[in-house]
TrEMBL record:
Pfam families: HTH_30
Domain PucR C-terminal helix-turn-helix: 321-378
Protein name per UniProt: PucR family transcriptional regulator
InterPro entries according to UniProt: CdaR-like_regulators, PucR_C-HTH_dom, PucR_C-HTH_sf
UniProt cross-references to PANTHER family, sorted A to Z: CARBOHYDRATE DIACID REGULATOR, DNA-BINDING TRANSCRIPTIONAL ACTIVATOR ADER
Lineage: Bacteria, Bacillati, Bacillota, Bacilli, Bacillales
């Protein structure tokens, strides 16, 4: 045990001096004399020494099949309560001992702490690229510079994949939150699910430019990441941080990220006042139309003027003509189904419909007017131009 304690102290001191995690893995290799593999999820495996891949694959297959192997051991690397990767040791020449496993465990603890410190520092320094990312978002970026920037990321998939912008907007709060660990966790979650992210932090807002590197089950993976972030926020220091999340249009080329950004902002306006709606721009088609109408004040006023008799009548008589009309249209003007949904007898429904006709005119159900009427009802019931965010 003394030898193990001495190694643990040595490896912890080493993490304070080095610039790259590879030196930790190299020390593990030299100390045990066993092959070492570091698997960061979503990235290529790193072998120390850079040999023995075929042996590793065979022993790993045996380990996975039997959940044990005398010649193979692994330990998960966890950062901020999430699995970041794993370190494996293996050998054909001798069996893995209990001491080897304990040394592996101590090494992974030190490695996790080093990676967390490195990621934290990197996140703090990312402010330098914020100006460039802003120009990418607003569409003013030089395409040659953008191409060069993506090439520098050492991932060829970034040049030929789908992109989207995700915005998280926070409710103003008297409490100041340091979002560094939240950003670290979000980066880890997205990368683990096959995404590459570029992050811009603004006052009360995080903007993610996200590349989809796997091309499968995109929406399912996005929702999974968002839900994990909600759980992390709820279970940690960020419990009081209220936010709204919106996803812009999914585009097929990095040149069109600005389009995704603009649609993400529109989606955010919609979801800020209607948290039950989908995160995705593509799912909010009718609401996007409503938002564009609300941006045009003259059309918005026309809708309000047309429906004003109904709203005034409901206010004066404490009735439900607006709700009745909306349900009636949703039920394709089927009276029995409408009455059942409203929990009223058909005679009451007939009375309400007669009153609606007297206020709007007998032709309000003609095809063209009916279509306009449904949009007008949505336009006057939702206020997507509101700036305050409701808590989720």
């Amino acid at each position: 045990m003394r030898r193990l304690d001495d190694y643990a102290q040595e490896i912890n001191k080493l993490t304070l001096k080095i610039n790259h995690y590879e030196q930790i893995l190299m020390r593990l290799y030299k100390f045990l004399g066993l092959n070492v593999v570091f698997n960061i999820f979503g990235q290529q495996s790193q072998f120390i020494p850079n040999i023995g891949q075929s042996v590793y694959e065979r022993l790993r297959k045996e380990f996975n099949a039997n959940e044990t192997s005398p010649y193979f051991a692994k330990c998960d690397v966890n950062i901020l309560e999430e699995s970041y990767g794993e370190v494996c040791i293996f050998s054909e020449e001798r069996e893995i001992t209990e001491f080897d496993s304990l040394v592996l465990d101590r090494t992974v603890i030190a490695l996790s702490q080093f990676l967390l410190r490195s990621l934290y520092t990197e996140e703090k320094q990312n402010l330098e690229s914020r100006t460039f990312l802003h120009s990418w978002l607003d569409g003013s970026v030089n395409l040659m510079e953008l191409n060069s920037f993506l090439n520098e990321q050492n991932n060829y998939k970034l040049l030929n994949c789908r992109y989207f912008v995700l915005i998280q907007k926070f409710q103003r709060s008297k409490q100041n939150f340091d979002l560094t660990y939240y950003k670290l966790y979000s980066r880890s979650i997205f990368e683990k699910n096959g995404f590459a992210i570029f992050l811009v932090e603004l006052p009360n807002q995080l903007i993610y430019i996200i590349a989809d590197l796997t091309q499968q089950d995109l929406k399912k993976r996005i929702v999974g990441c968002i839900e994990k972030l909600r759980v992390f926020k709820r279970n940690n220091y960020y419990t009081q941080l209220k936010m709204t999340t919106a996803v812009g249009q999914i585009v097929n080329d990095y040149q069109f990220v600005s389009n995704s950004f603009e649609t993400a902002k529109d989606t955010l306006l919609i979801r800020m006042n209607s948290q039950h709606l989908s995160y995705f721009y593509e799912d909010l088609f009718i609401y996007q139309i409503v938002l564009q109408i609300q941006k045009n004040t003259s059309i918005l006023e026309m809708a309000r003027d047309f429906l004003k008799p109904l709203y005034d009548y409901d206010l004066k008589h404490k009735s439900q003509l607006v709700e009745t009309l909306q349900i009636y249209l949703q039920c394709n003007c089927m009276k029995q189904e409408t009455a059942e949904k409203l929990f009223i007898v058909r005679q009451t429904l007939y009375h309400r419909l007669d009153k609606i006709e007297s206020l709007l005119g007998s032709d309000y159900l003609l095809p063209q007017k009916r279509l306009a009427l449904e949009i007008m009802l949505l336009t006057t019931q939702y206020n997507f131009q509101e700036n305050e965010i409701r808590a989720i």
